[in-house]
Amino acid sequence: MVRRPGDEADRRQGQPAGRQRDPEVQARDRVIVSEAFKIADNALVLRIAEDRDAQDLFGLLSLCFADYPGCFIDPHDDLRDLRAPGSPRQNDGVLWVTEDESGRIRACVSVDFPGAATAELHRLYVRPDQRGRGLGSSLVRAVERHAREKGATCMFFWSDTRFTDAHRLYKKLGYTQTDRRRDLGDISNSSEYHFEKDL
Going from the N-terminus, what domains does the chain have, and what CATH number goes with each? Predict the structure, then answer.
């Protein structure tokens, strides 16, 4: 279990510890996905990640990577963006999270726009106990909708060669695995396949 301590600044200011957030900020950051993306009769609710989510995000990735021998978490090199997830992201990017009933992050997804009409999907991770409910598919569709609204006509991403379950999902959602491949030279000796789709 990933422990989520209360924010120290909240305690010093006499505010409740934990997941308490300003209601106006909460409303601004919340994205209610349409009826088409319902999961188990509950609307999928995404919010923009905050810096206080870093511990939970690393916990999420640790749980996901545990299924793949040789995959390691390296926050000092290839996961720097998750150390301060609320900070501005490059290329007009955004990182969203969705929480379970207890306020723990159950999944995340990110997208940015490296080209005028091109979107790149990143950081799609679903907690193991939350899989098999259509959550991953709904997150991809939500990102696709956001990308279309931003004017993107195609989406691409890179995925570790070991993530075969995810590859089946991507292909089911209409993504094509191209012949491109890259080696990251990271602590996990990661090699990635390239996927793309016209939006």
Answer: 23-198 (3.40.630.30)
